[in-house]
Design a protein that fits this description.
Number of helices: 57
Largest sheet: 5 strands, mixed
Helix content: 40-55%
Distance between the termini: 79 Å
Amino acid sequence: MNNFDFHNLLAPTEFETFCTHVLEIRENPIKFTTYRRGRDGGIDIKSTNTQEKIIGQCKLYIPQNERGLINNLKKELLKCKRLKLDRYIICVNINLSVSLSKEILELFKGYKRCEEDIIDGQKLNKYLEQPAYEYLFKIYSKLLVPNLKAVEIALEKVINRKFYNISRTFLLDLIDKHKLYHNTEQLQHLIQKLEEDKVIILSGNPGVGKTTTAKMIANYFINRKKSEVFYLGENDYAETTSVLENNRLIIVDDFWGQNFSPKIKDNSTYEREFVSLINNFKSFDNSYLILISREYILKDILKNAELETEHIVRDNKYIIQLKDYSKEDKVKIFLNHLIFYDFELAYLESLSYSDEFEHILNHKNYSPRILEIFIKRYKIEVYQSSYDFYDKLHKYLDNPIEYWTQAFKKLSPNAQLILLVLLITSDPMNSEDLRNSFNSVQEDARNYLNLKINPQEFETELKKLEEFYIFIEKDEFYNTFYIKFQSPGIKDYLLEYLRTDGYLWIKPIIKNAIFFNQLTFIFSTEKEKISDYESDIVLYGEKIVLNESLKKELKNKILTEFETLQFSNYEEREFSDQLTKFYTKNETKYLKLHTISRLLNIDILNNKDVKEFVLSQISKDFERFKINKGKIVEHHSMIYFPSIIKRFFPYLNFTKNEILTIFYESITFAIEYDYFYDFKEIFPIEFNYFYTSNILNIRKHIKELIEDDIDYYLWEDNDLELDTFTSFTIEELSKKYKFRLSTKYLKNLENTFDIKFPFKHKEKRKSKIKSKKTNKPSKTNKKLKPKPYQAIIEEYLPTEEDNYDSISYLKEKKYTNLISALKAGNNILVSFADNKILFENICEFIISKKIEINGLSTFEFIELYISYFTTEKGISRVHLTNFICDLYKHLEQSNHYSITKSKLKAIIKNTFGFELEIEILSPIITPYKQWYKLSTTNFEKYFIAKKLSTADNSEIYKKEILDYLMDSFDDIEILDFLQTADKSKLWNWFINPEIDRLLKTIDFTDDKSIALSFINFFQIEFELSWNRKERTLEIWSSSNSESHFENIFQFINIEFFISDFESYFEIGMQTNETHKRLFININSQKDIYSVLIKTIPSKTVNSWLNNEQETIFEIKLSDFITSSNNYQLLEDVGLVKYIKQILQNVKYARTANSSLAKW
């Protein structure tokens, strides 16, 4: 009996059309139509040729979600009454119980003729067993999931071991990759044609899907006709007749391979054999033949073919070409590849409004094979993102060529050397540099490899290579010619050639290299990925690991020619550590030192000379700095300086503080503060002290440098540096040095310099805290026009389960106590009620174990549940804790808080120490369409709290909490969980030390001292925008250094926000409730306004809202309050009273714990 899983095998729209076809067979002659989603008012199907008004609903439900179906149908009943229907049909994928079917029938009494109008999964499966429905398998071949048993049956009579192995490989590949395939509109026609004519010829260009189509046809014949399957390669075509038997499908790939073409032209025997073969197949009742050929070979043969051969080919040929694929076919094939190769959710979601996606689908070189080749190469890359993926795929499509081996072997040694030099240098390469490199290498290569290399033929060979391998283009800016590869295929081939057959080339190449990057671009001393991200055509793969002899050659080359070896590039390569030929030896020095220390292990005796060489270079710079000051190293060496110091510090005669000071005093670009932050990990204690002592000056200096640097990059026309700086660097600096980048501040910079800041923020997780409503119009509400294929993409994306009614479930189970608790808002039940799988499992646990939930905290309940869960599943709590904590770190890096199957499995294996089925971790981990997610963030908080409760280091404990508060958007529930896990540790290692740190900095001598020291502690700064006409001030931007105290104070029931301090300066912007809470004196606010206007320096910027000029006042609150007059103003306005109240509440909370000292 059939048991098709419609939920997992068909998309929602496919299920609708499938149900339409089923109904048209069952209800013949009634015809039905489907509606596009979102335009039917909830109607999926409707009769088109009846006077009766018949409509229907077709919906895929998660199995076992019967209650969700009932809730949805109750809404459908209102539709039936409104539309005054005669008949209403329901089609669902799930199997309905007898009682539920009767309940639905009773619900729609008057709109259903009988129970047959309720079509469930069981009925659909029964229909598909009947002959009248057989043809549906040709339309919906996705239902025929390949399985190993069917393959083995199909191969039973394949006695010849050669054919058995190749056929089995062919069909096992079908099993492995069936999710890649899509049931195109062509497939139904092809199956029908093969059944009728016995023979089809699939033709087309390489990579368009000929073999894939043959596999899908084979899958149909195995499942529905129980045919045996033979697969033959191009060299086996002559043996096709020998395996011809009844009930057999034979597939011959590339049946007239390129080698056969000239034979057929010259010898008509091949044509007669071909005609005889076709006629033999047509004489058998149930034997079938699929011939696969490249289209250009068929055209070549048919030019001189006999008439009968020409007729057979033309009558039976079906050209597979991408232009015949519908837009839906192309999109689904592409999306199937993303799913099969386990891409993150972001890669699919980014397609909804992507022009890049449309360009890729319509690209002349796009094909499923090219896509698969690219994906396989891309998946090994370290850095991956959806933007990067689509950008590189588009570039790759511009010229994809796969096979170069035979072509390369036919080249002269001169041409081979030119290509190899271009490869090791990284294209594009200046033509003169290529010539000089060629001349430098050629003599040793000629002698060492015994090749006929003639340097006089360089120009001639270069022109020949231009036909197929390289481009020669004029660079007008640099007034030079440069050379680059035409295709990624040749680059890929040359890399593997040097790694294997061409390994002997490497010695003369290294020995005679004239550029530093020629030694490091594809060569390494250990396993390492190639970095070629900035090339027009990217080279993927691993670098070539040199043997010991070549390592010595490399070391000798670098040490003896360190000063003269520079870089060949005209443009800087930010991500692959390659500078340009225009940099001086001092500017490239530390990149080269960094490379030496990475490639050559200084800890082994053989490399003692390397260590001494690097130390001598570093020492020269320190000695020079002592005398001349300035910068310790050039700007382009500053990025590598920390890593060099980290590696060689034990051998230097300088203290950590001296090094930090020297680097700090050398900073002249904002980006260098990013490099400076690397010392946080190198010298953590000393850096933190330096950071704390100098943070205000650092922030001020950074903001000054930001404007200077933007101006500099614009002046120098350095688009690459400017783009990196505005897209990433500024945002990173604000995070590391904790200053706020307000919208107005960024808009001010944008208007001043006519630039954009394309920051991308992570999607926030759902929060239980409701945001304040605003009536202000939002500029971001403008709707983007969706692409024609957006509806298809949405079918691949996860959706939240509709209509899950937790109360109905509890009523059905008769869990009356839990119903009361849920209605009363019990925190435990409410926090789990959104997830069906989790909620029902939790409820079963409560009932079966007789858990009394009243009085339990969420943490305490989860503690009981996890104990039960780990016992039932037979897994370790320690392993589970480590797993969730590691998973959390990954989820926080995901824009959509989900994880792919492969990454989830990797985390499981890494933390548990062995492979574990994902399903065992349900319902803690739940499916999210093709991905997975944590069923509730309460598990995340629980396991983090549990792990931290075992911490033995207070600094690590504190850091982990602060990181979580920042990553989770100030979710203070983590503090509740931590308190339950280990109250003493939370208070003694985090809450109290932080409160003590605050109170110890407060000078309680008098009110002014209190206020001044409090404000100094938080380092509050903000900018106010002046509305001259309204005589008001409004916040423009703000920053502070201790934002986590808001969480601490709220945790100890003190309402406190650092942004409250801005309220004393903003006139008319607060509610009466805020005035009361902050003790704001409205009259005194007007006095502050007058003082600000008269005494605080202002600056003028253009408003991004209306492009009008706006006046900005910069307030550093600690400076403002030092003036006696200003202090009096702040005291009068209520700020001092507010500070004193906050501190009073803090001291009270601090003394509440009797085990701690009182203040």
